[in-house]
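tool_log.txt
---
The assistant was asked to compare two proteins side by side. It first ran the structure predictor on the initial sequence, then on the second. Raw inputs and outputs are pasted verbatim so the downstream comparison step can read them without reformatting.
(1)
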Amino acid sequence: MRLFLAIELPSHVLDDLESALAPLRAAAPGLAWVPCEKRHLTLKFLGDVAEDRVPALVAMMDRVARPFGVRVWVRVGVRVGVRVPTVFPARRLEITHDSDPDTDPARRITITRDSDPYSGFDMQLQGIGAFPNFRRARVVWIGVEQEARLELLHHDLEVACEQEGFEIDGRAFRPHVTLARIREPLDLDGAKRLARAARRIDFAAVAAVSEISLLESTLAPDGARYRRLHTAPLG
């Protein structure tokens, strides 16, 4: 089973986005456009997973999504060689590394709790871009603005997945929703036309996030088909 964790977008946001993208689609009809109903924000790609591991993934999702301890924010002066659990039973904790915090405050890590960091939150979609860039575009996307609770949710899922035997993704988290894929490299004129059309798209939307989903992706001649296996409400 080819699985991934994702945030699915509300239908009204998907519909509004589809309407706003019409000029972009017209400028680049040869792209492999992701169907409206399949657009989502990927939190963690799990790859090929044996079916008997699904129950453990479901339980892990529920643990992360539903607060089962005191969740914390971590403020660090500099990067130090210690790892701090995301769930910790104290209101405040200080950890020091290789020095006296009284003489070297930058070496002090202070943890303070936030009782409910992601019991549901809003994320904003805005700005059309391409990976790695429009000149050598392979993927066209709409960006998702950085949001502290989204970052924390992604971090907690990465840590929980590692505990289930999945490799941590070492790349920086760049939240986005894929709009299209480019199978063959664009020539210079095509790339410029796509970039110009992208700059003209004036779209912004706020999507309410209240759950995370475990989705199965099955490859087919007409594109990937998704099946929802589990949904974990936040909070």
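(2)
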Amino acid sequence: MAATFSPTVHIGTETQLTDGGSKLTLNWEEMYALALELADGIEQHAIETGESFDVMAVLPRGGYFPALILSRRFGFRAHQIVHLGLTSYRDGETQRSDEIIGQTPNGEEIAGRNVLLVDEVCDSGHTLMQATHRLARLGAHTVRSAVLHYKPERSETGYVPDIYAASYNGWVVYPGEPDEAHAQFSCVNRANHAPALVDIETRTV
């Protein structure tokens, strides 16, 4: 059985919600500290199991920040990092929908390799379970998942990440998430705002 690791204290600011739940808010410094906790857990896992990894597979978008820290901490170079465009949530939604598949690695990048799968949180477990199965179908020798937060009481699948930095069942707000409110006013992303861009292009002709 793969090792897990969690610190004894929560990193972040916890507030109680009116519905009886709780919210944990992290700033960039706290998220960095938690990523280092995760790195320690991965190191411990490698020592205890004798496993090492050939490839890091990153789940966007939440997996980008921990993957940046982990890749530098462990010396993963660009050619050892792959992008697994799989998500269970559509933009602006908090309820899970059918998995959306974007860019994924090919068999040559995964077959026969030990893969470290990185994301920021394991909530329902659907995304990480789907990602693990997809990597296995591509021929991965082993797949081990590593996340900042694991929410055992939120699981709908029974999926447990192999390594996690902290266990927390409430709502977690990561730095950068509040900036998503700006998206509705931005004309940068054509996929989300094609009508606005067409209007801009018409006015500038």
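---
observation on (2): The longest helix spans residues 28-49. The first strand starts at residue 13 and ends at 16.
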